[in-house]
TrEMBL record:
Range of residues in the leader sequence: none
Keywords: Hydrolase, Metal-binding, Metalloprotease, Protease, Zinc
Record lineage: Archaea, Candidatus Undinarchaeota, Candidatus Undinarchaeia, Candidatus Naiadarchaeales, Candidatus Naiadarchaeaceae
Pfam families with a match to the protein in the record: Peptidase_M54
Cofactor dependency: Zn(2+)
GO biological process terms, semicolon-separated: proteolysis
InterPro entries to which the protein is assigned, alphabetical: MetalloPept_cat_dom_sf (IPR024079), Pept_M54_archaemetzincn (IPR012962)
Protein name as catalogued: Archaemetzincin
Superkingdom as given in the UniProt entry: Archaea
GO MF terms held by the record: metal ion binding; metallopeptidase activity
Length: 190
């Protein structure tokens, strides 16, 4: 399998943004290769999400319609897979904290940098971002979340017992697809 990937900063104006994007691209390339997926990753210029999707709250700024944000990313005139990162939190009707969003068969995904944690360790947050991108890519390629292999598969859910998505659970899981997922993706077993 070979993918053309655009890593897109979407309303993503954090300190050390270029360094973060470079690290995420490097981790992602390694993770994809170790999963038997060849990729050409290109970092694109920043795009601004439509202001109607962003709501300023008392202590934070949130994307309240993550599905419309994903549709916006998908509509960008860019070939291949569109992997976008925003600085804002995301929420939906089901969960007050969403780390990423994607849909089967669609060439786009969006993850929230803010939801990846507050640590000052850029590497740690970039690793979380790359792992979350692997998880969302799995959804794009038609794989659903499962617990068959536990944290030994990128497709395990990152929710805690209360249904909240947890950055610490991203740390626990691998970036690799399990044997079941690899079979579905028609990737040779390791």
């Amino acid at each position: 399998m070979r993918l053309k990937i655009s890593l897109i900063p979407a309303s993503f104006s954090i300190e050390n943004r270029d360094a973060a994007l470079g690290k995420i691209a490097d981790y992602l390339e390694t993770y994809l290769q170790e999963n038997g997926i060849e990729a050409n990753i290109e970092i694109k210029e920043e795009v601004k999400l439509p202001t109607g999707l962003i709501k300023k709250l008392k202590h934070s700024t949130v994307i309240t319609d993550d599905e419309s944000a994903l549709e916006f990313i998908e509509g960008l005139q860019i070939d291949g897979q569109k992997f976008a990162i925003t600085q804002y939190k995301m929420s939906d009707e089901v969960s007050p904290k969403v780390i990423g969003i994607s849909s089967p068969g669609r060439p786009a995904l969006l993850i929230s940098w803010e939801s990846l944690g507050k640590e000052n360790d850029l590497d740690k947050i970039c690793i979380r971002a790359a792992k979350e991108i692997m998880h969302e890519l799995g959804h794009n390629l038609g794989i659903i979340e499962h617990h068959t292999w536990g944290y030994e598969c990128a497709m395990v859910e990152t929710e805690d017992n209360l249904g909240n998505f947890s950055p610490e659970n991203i740390d626990k899981k691998t970036y690799k697809f399990c044997q079941d997922c690899r079979e579905k993706l028609k990737i040779p077993q390791q």
